């Protein structure tokens, strides 16, 4: 519209010929004539009204052509359709279009219906463009930024790690601080996250840290046995993100950034003296984060979680997961296996066989080819043998 205004100014205000105006503006003389005729037909004169912006001027000079056969088509509720696609498994746009056509037989055809929906979806926030089924994926990772905690007795500053989990469908976020990224803290954070959510997601998407994946592979990564046991206890699956593919876990990457800016940044002038104190402050900010309204979508993380994710998630088991470690050990000639300097008996027929030991703070279990063949109370006394009589040969 800048050149249009300049044409009107030169002809009407400066009394310049239309040929000279065309040369000055770099357009054809026919364009100048057409512009002047459209302005006269629209009832315009110079100077133009002050409240006439470029959009209004374009509407006055080039009004949309209304064809006699044109009709106003019934508009679907795109937000409701979008929510249904997020919550219902195996639901397609074809089925939604068929239901739409039943209520509006003269409405959009399928190809136009899909195109308009895609254009509408592009207007959503970038973090909401990905299509995640309700209750399906829980993305987990650690923040690169740590949280300093001061020892009140010595003044020593220790950096706590920050665990972040984000639900794919609703962006419901969980954050907590732990001392390390080791296996006990990693599995404990998962158990507490599930308790916070009140349900279990159907799939976990971790990064390839050692506490989750012992061997990275594009097709069949080897999961840490303890992490796999946690997933089995809660009835969920683990699908690690591919190496050097940050888009596989874009949800938690965004969640980490939000946690750093909304939670950790608010503690910049605050000093914590214990991990419990830090987690209590994190929980307060976390509740505010999950209840903060979205900018471009109705509701907030908490309301969308209750609407989309929670109904599709798995129920919590009756007992929370108890941390256990796994170790491979060879059976000695005296039908005992060694764990941290203590020796535990197994059936004597398994001498020289490879065993898998599962041990917690209170119990040691011995597995052979997936079957439990022995169980003993955990002992911390080194150099001593714990032997069950049934494991001994008759001659002994």
What's this model, at a glance?
This protein has 396 residues and is α+β, with helices and mostly antiparallel strands. 35% of the residues lie in helices and 18% in strands.
Largest beta-sheet details: 6 strands, mixed
Q: Any idea what the shape is? A: elongated
List the secondary-structure elements in sequence, H or E. Answer: HHHHHHHEEEEHEEEHEHHHEEEEEEE
**Runs with pLDDT <50, length 5+?**
none
Beginning-to-end CA distance, first to last residue: 102 Å
How much of the sequence is in beta strands? 15-25%
Estimate the helix proportion, in percent. Answer: 25-40%
| DSSP, total strands | 15
Please state the structural category.
Answer: alpha+beta
Instruction: Give the rounded overall mean pLDDT.
Output: 86
Number of helices: 12
Kindly provide the radius of gyration, computed on alpha-carbon positions and rounded to a whole number of angstroms.
Answer: 34 Å
Key descriptive features of the protein:
elongated, alpha+beta, 396 residues
Give a structural overview.
Strands 1, 2, 3, 4, 5 and 8 form a 6-stranded mixed beta sheet that branches. The longest helix is centred in the last third of the chain and has 16 residues, at 275-290. Strand 12 (354-359) and strand 13 (363-368) form a beta hairpin. Helix 2 (18-25) packs across helix 3 (29-41). The model has no long low-confidence stretch (mean pLDDT 86). With 396 residues, the protein is an alpha+beta fold. 25% of the residues are buried. It contains 12 helices and 15 strands.
């Amino acid at each position: 519209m800048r050149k249009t205004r300049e044409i009107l100014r030169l002809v009407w205000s400066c009394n310049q010929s239309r040929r000279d105006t065309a040369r000055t503006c770099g357009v054809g003389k026919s364009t100048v004539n057409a512009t002047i005729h459209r302005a006269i037909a629209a009832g315009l004169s110079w100077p133009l009204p002050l409240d006439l912006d470029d959009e209004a001027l374009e509407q006055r000079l080039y009004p949309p052509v209304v064809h006699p056969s044109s009709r106003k088509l019934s508009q679907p509720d795109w937000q409701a359709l979008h929510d249904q696609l997020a919550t219902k498994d195996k639901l397609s746009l074809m089925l939604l279009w068929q239901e739409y056509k039943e209520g509006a037989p003269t409405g959009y055809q399928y190809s136009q219906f899909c195109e308009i929906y895609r254009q509408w979806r592009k207007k959503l926030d970038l973090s909401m463009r990905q299509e995640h089924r309700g209750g399906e994926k829980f993305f987990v990772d650690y923040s690169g930024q740590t949280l300093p905690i001061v020892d009140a007795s010595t003044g020593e500053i220790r950096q706590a790690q920050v665990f972040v989990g984000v639900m794919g469908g609703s962006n419901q976020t969980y954050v907590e601080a732990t001392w390390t990224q080791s296996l006990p803290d990693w599995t404990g954070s998962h158990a507490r996250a599930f308790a916070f959510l009140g349900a279990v997601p159907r799939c976990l998407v971790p990064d390839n840290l050692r506490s989750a994946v012992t061997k990275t592979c594009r097709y069949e990564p080897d999961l840490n046995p303890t992490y796999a046991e946690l997933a089995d206890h809660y009835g969920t699956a683990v699908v690690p993100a591919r190496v050097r593919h940050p888009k596989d876990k874009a949800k938690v990457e965004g969640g980490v950034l939000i946690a750093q800016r909304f939670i950790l940044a608010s503690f910049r002038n605050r000093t914590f003296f214990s991990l419990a104190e830090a987690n209590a402050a994190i929980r307060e900010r976390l509740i505010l984060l999950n209840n903060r309204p979205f900018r471009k979508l109705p509701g907030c993380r908490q309301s969308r979680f209750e609407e989309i994710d929670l109904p599709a998630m798995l129920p919590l088991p009756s007992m929370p997961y108890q941390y256990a470690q796994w170790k491979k050990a060879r059976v000695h000639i005296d039908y005992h296996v060694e764990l941290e300097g203590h020796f535990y008996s197994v059936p004597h027929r398994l001498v020289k066989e490879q065993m898998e030991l599962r041990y917690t703070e209170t119990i040691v279990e011995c597995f052979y080819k997936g079957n439990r063949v022995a169980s003993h109370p955990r002992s911390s006394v080194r150099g001593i043998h714990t032997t069950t009589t049934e494991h001994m040969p008759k001659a002994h």
